[in-house]
């Protein structure tokens, strides 16, 4: 009994091997193991390998893959698509063509067309026998789907339910009719939310006319959940989603994914220079004000980052929807206020302490402390509210809420934070320093 | 056939109802539906409901839950723990006590002790009959675990394999011996990675002596993956993980989760004020330098945020390990360099353009542009490298890499960014402005 390694792990250094070396290594393994390994590679790796193999080997290996994986492979194959498709048997080619009609991130692109279909008038025992016959060609034997002559889904029953009912009971009387089914054009993120709520290991996919087209199994959903979380996390870090493992993304592609957003944020942040130019005379008169600029604007950015992260994630897992913006605002406004007061308290203490110890700020220490304290409250409240509401705004205009990234929120809050700070300063320090 | 709603969805506004109202609503539903709904509530809601019910109802509802869910419930029950435990039947109480010995986020805390055990000398047909008998008391019927007299795991076979083999073949000859099993003290994040790689719907959990203690099913893994991603995303946004849905966290708890990190970052960022105080004379002589402070330090923060996000996520899904820091450094160093050059180019163009249009920067425009450009390259390279390596550092000292949050990286880079900027300025502008 192995503990940490799975039976399908590739050898160390695998990802650095050229496709030809991978072929050699695979040929040297017992078929059972090399097949298992091949089935668990990424689509890109499977494609590389297939193209490196001889024509006859290619056919054997390609036919190992279930139709949904073949569809992903053909989608990535570019000019080799026709050649690879010609290696499939006719039945599979038909299924794959149907799958290719769907975009990869829709329910239809995730499903497998190989499921157990039964008729409503079969008995439980007949149905079990039927499962036994089909067991090697279907994606899962654990659910049986009851269809009418037009392939419309009438009900579903699990193998477990079939086991615990009398042998001669017709399927029609055992099946559940309140079936959770998934429209073939539903986005994969929504599909993952349904799985997360339902605890089922497979769900049927139906088209607009209620005809069953395939099933989605939960092992694919684990991948979807991981993928969607990676995308959100990367967008949240202020870049485009990679859609591939870090080490597999080439230098040029990585640069493109990151340079675009970084440059956009930079151009946005240039407004801080413009804003500060307006206050150049104030700064010249009260250089001490500049000392607290990074402190104040970054606090707004951090508060905004917290709020936007929370909201983006809660939206992604379906905890809150677009309509909940009022509820969120009612929570975040007092929260931002309290957080701002906390920081203001620390900031004021810091200034007064430095004053007592070193006399750093001369006769205007108290006025300066008041300026910094009030600005912090203003900036943190604004950062929190802006960070919390931006994802709703993006969603309302049909953009991805995850684009309300920490750097993006920080950039907007930096510019407005400067305006808040200098406005407060002019008001409080008038006649003292300005 | 319903499409969007699952059969277990609570009614609208459910989460705002007091527990007593929830009880009333549940009692009014047909038992099948109210039981389903109850089973899919969060642990906290189940507990609230149970405490609001009468003693006799409580027993019925509590006994609906599988042992792993009961264990979670008792863990959350506080002073009611003994009372609730007394309502269980003896067998379940024993199982639950065994589960409670594990921490919630370890494999042992996720597993269910209810699985199908068979002996190696049973025939395939006997085994199928046995599954039929056990089908209503086990978590899944889809895998059969072959154990010896000491409960040591000998092998596993799926119901599907059992179906496609001759009826009189002994289980010993059908079972697979190269079983992937999970140590009972493995962290749930590592368990999720094994599931993501293996495509199986259940995996056995064994203790240090190889005795099988239970199974983990993939539907729980979807929850784990979502949970871990939420935790990472929240930490990444610069706060403590909530461990609960956004709308269910009370005001005081939310404040605590956010105020701590915000205050810590604020105190760290106070170093910027200290750093700038060192350059107060430079600033007084060259106020124009201050205009670009937010621009330069935020660019370092943004570059660092991109790098740390990528690395944290790649670590979380197991794409890279602690040993890969050299590979990462070799990629990020030239990347940071290119990104820095891009931004420097834009920054220099901006200064020269403003100079040509409005003569904003007088005779020292070129020197200023050079200062800003060089600083940008330095700050972006440093931000990228620091952001990429910090997760490795945290991991090396056994802290969570996800603590290398965007705000944390930005705070460190802000302070060092100021030092870089003023050092470059002193060097370039000596004799011109300083």
Please provide a brief summary of the model.
Two copies of one chain form a homodimer. With 434 residues, chain A is mainly alpha-helical.
Can you put this structure into words, describing what you see?
The structure is a homodimer of 434-residue chains. Chain A has 19 helices and 6 strands. Helix content of chain A is 61%, strand content 6%. Residues 1-7 of chain A have low confidence and may be disordered. In chain A, strand 2 (143-147) and strand 3 (153-158) form a beta hairpin. In chain A, the strands form 2 sheets. In chain A, strands 1-2-3 form a 3-stranded mixed β-sheet. A 3-stranded mixed β-sheet of chain A has the order 4-5-6. Chain A is mainly alpha-helical and 434 residues long. Chain A is elongated, with a radius of gyration of 30 Å. The longest helix of chain A has 34 residues, at 325-358. Chains A and B meet through helix 10, strand 4, helix 12, helix 13 and helix 14 of A and helix 10, strand 4, helix 12, helix 13 and helix 14 of B.
Structural features:
about 425 residues, 3-stranded mixed β-sheet, mainly alpha, homodimer, 19 helices
Main structural class of chain A: mainly alpha
The count of DSSP E runs of length 2 or more, i.e. the number of strands of chain A, is: 6
Relative helix content of chain A: 55-70%
Largest sheet of chain A: 3 strands, mixed
Q: Give the low-pLDDT segments of chain A.
A: 1-7
* Rg estimate of chain A, integer Å: 30 Å
Number of helices of chain A: 19
Largest beta sheet of chain A: what is the strand line-up?
Answer: 1-2-3
User: How does the overall form of chain A come out from the CA principal axes?
Assistant: elongated
Greatest contact between two chains: A-B, 125 and 125 residues
Oligomer: homodimer
Q: Span from first to last CA of chain A? A: 77 Å
SSE pattern of chain A: HHHHHHHHEHEEHHEHEEHHHHHHH
- What's the average pLDDT of chain A? 87
How much of the residues of chain A is beta strand, in percent?
Answer: 5-15%
């Amino acid at each position: 009994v192995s503990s940490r390694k799975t039976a399908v792990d590739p050898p160390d250094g695998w990802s650095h091997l050229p496709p030809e070396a991978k072929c050699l290594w695979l040929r040297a393994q017992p078929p059972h193991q090399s097949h298992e390994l091949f089935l668990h590679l990424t689509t890109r790796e499977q494609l590389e390998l297939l193209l490196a193999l001889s024509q006859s080997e290619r056919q054997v290996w390609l036919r190992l893959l279930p139709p949904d994986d073949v569809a992903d492979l053909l989608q990535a194959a570019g000019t080799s698509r026709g050649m690879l498709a010609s290696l499939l048997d006719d039945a599979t080619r038909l299924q794959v063509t149907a799958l290719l009609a769907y975009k990869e991130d829709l329910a239809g692109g995730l499903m497998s067309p190989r499921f157990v279909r039964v008729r409503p008038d079969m008995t439980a025992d007949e149905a079990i026998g039927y499962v036994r016959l089909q067991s090697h060609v279907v994606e899962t034997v654990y659910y049986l789907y009851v269809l009418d002559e037009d392939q419309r889904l009438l009900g579903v029953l699990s193998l477990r339910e079939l086991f615990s009912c009398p042998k001669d009971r017709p399927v029609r009387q055992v099946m559940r009719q309140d079936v959770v089914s998934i429209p073939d054009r539903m986005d994969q993120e929504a599909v993952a939310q349904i799985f997360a709520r339902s605890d089922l290991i497979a769900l049927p996919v139906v088209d607009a006319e209620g005809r069953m087209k395939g099933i989605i199994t939960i092992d694919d959903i684990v991948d979807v959940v991981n993928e969607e979380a990676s995308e959100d996390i990367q967008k949240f870090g202020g870049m485009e989603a990679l859609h591939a493992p870090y080490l597999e993304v080439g230098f040029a592609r990585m640069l493109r994914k990151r340079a675009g957003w970084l440059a956009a944020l930079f151009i946005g942040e240039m407004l801080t220079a413009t804003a500060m130019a307006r206050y150049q005379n104030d700064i010249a008169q009260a250089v001490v004000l500049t000392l607290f600029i990074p402190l104040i604007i970054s606090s707004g950015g951090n508060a905004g980052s917290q709020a936007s992260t929370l909201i983006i994630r809660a939206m992604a897992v379906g905890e809150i929807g677009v309509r909940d913006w009022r509820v969120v605002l009612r929570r975040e406004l007092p929260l931002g206020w309290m957080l701002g007061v906390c920081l203001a308290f620390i900031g004021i203490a810091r200034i007064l302490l430095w004053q007592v110890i070193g006399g750093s700020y001369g006769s205007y220490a108290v006025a300066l402390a008041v300026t910094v304290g009030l600005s912090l409250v203003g900036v943190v409240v604004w950062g929190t509210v802006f960070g919390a509401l931006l994802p709703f705004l993006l969603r309302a205009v049909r953009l991805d809420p995850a684009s309300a990234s920490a750097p993006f929120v920080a950039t907007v809050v930096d510019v407005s934070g400067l305006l808040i700070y200098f406005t407060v300063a002019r008001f409080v320090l008038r006649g003292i320093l300005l």
